[in-house]
UniProtKB/TrEMBL annotation:
SUPFAM superfamilies: Adenine nucleotide alpha hydrolases-like, DHS-like NAD/FAD-binding domain. InterPro entries: DHS-like_NAD/FAD-binding_dom, ETF_a/b_N, ETF_a/FixB, ETF_alpha_N, ETF_asu_C, ETF_asu_C_CS, Rossmann-like_a/b/a_fold. The keyword Transport applies. One of its GO terms (molecular function) is electron transfer activity. Its cofactor is FAD. Binds 1 FAD per dimer. Transmembrane segments: none annotated. This is Electron transfer flavoprotein subunit alpha. Heterodimer of an alpha and a beta subunit. GO terms for cellular component: mitochondrial matrix. It comes from Daucus carota subsp. sativus. It holds the Pfam family ETF_alpha.
Amino acid sequence: MATIPMLRAYKRRSTSTFRYLSTLILAEHEGGSLKAQTLNAIAAANYLGKESSISLLLAGSGPSLQEAAAHAASCHPSISKVLLAKSDKFTYPLAEPWAKLLQLVQKIGSYSHIISASGSFGKNILPRAAALLDVSPISDVIKISEPHLFVRPIYAGNALCTVRYVGSNPCMLSIRSTSFPMISMAADSKSNPAPIDEVDLSTIDEDGISKSRYIQQTTQESERPDLGNARVVITGGRALKSAENFKMVEQLAEKLGAAVGATRAAVDAGYVPNELQVGQTGKIVAPELYMAFGVSGAIQHLAGMRDSKVIVAVNKDADAPIFQVADYGLVGDLFEVIPELLEKMPEKK
Ligand SMILES: Cc1cc2nc3c(=O)[nH]c(=O)nc-3n(C[C@H](O)[C@H](O)[C@H](O)COP(=O)(O)OP(=O)(O)OC[C@H]3O[C@@H](n4cnc5c(N)ncnc54)[C@H](O)[C@@H]3O)c2cc1C
């Protein structure tokens, strides 16, 4: 007898919690378009439930912001609103002003969830915003089972942890882009764009905003596809022995139209810049094809590539751990295998 009221109470609480789901996505944009990882965040938000409304928050300055807002408004039918914060304060991805912006937008919109992709942008802003909102963020989510039940990897991806969020709103998540495949733009683009509303910034709390200052951003200009979104990734390890030898890996990537990746050992040895590092402390990739040359397969490296669809490994040690995750393995010397591949592969058209 005593359990019935309790059950009723629980049911009432859960329906009211789930009925009013409203999600805010912290959007990243560049050159007038949303970045691919924001589309992954939209895909993730769609797992929260069909009744959930999804708003995208874009901030920055200049004409490209307006273009990106137009793109955001028509990128997917699930978007119910685009919020635009126009200010020079948001031209650069500094955590202090952006976290205050999230705090302000949450105060106005009372969202049940705030989602960002777990790239360097989201990782920089979300924890600070969560502290301002006095909630615990859940990072690196790879599965949304229920609106408050998530799966995230721990111990460098060697175990998966199921987390139930029991805190107050907003439930803040960073999602691993590779786990929420991008929604096809052509198939899903909508004819009626979502409304674009400007955020009233007059009440933003400016305290501490100027604690950090943007100096410069250094990026490697490259014709190759972006490592995080490439369909094919060719990775080299310490075994390449020098930056000069690493060029073989780059040539192979060129022929395959692939992105180049590297282990931390290769990066630390100075063969390639650290933005090419794949792994726990580098980029997380899940391409259709991942080819690893002279990579031992340390757990920290596997953490960044084990979700790749097909893994090919070339290593001269038959017991190298990389072979445990490889779909195709070749025990051999990369200094023989790569030149042979380069010779036999047709030039990229
Ligand atoms: C906190 C922490 C975070 C880390 N984060 C990362 C990370 O994000 N990414 C990452 O990659 N690492 C990371 N590491 C480092 C990681 O533990 C390994 O040290 C690193 O991945 C090893 O790189 P490697 O496979 O190139 O080198 P090694 O482990 O030295 O392996 C070289 C391999 O090449 C093979 N080989 C040698 N010569 C040839 C040849 N001629 N032909 C074919 N095969 C050959 C060898 O058999 C060997 O298996 C991290 C470590 C720590 C502690």
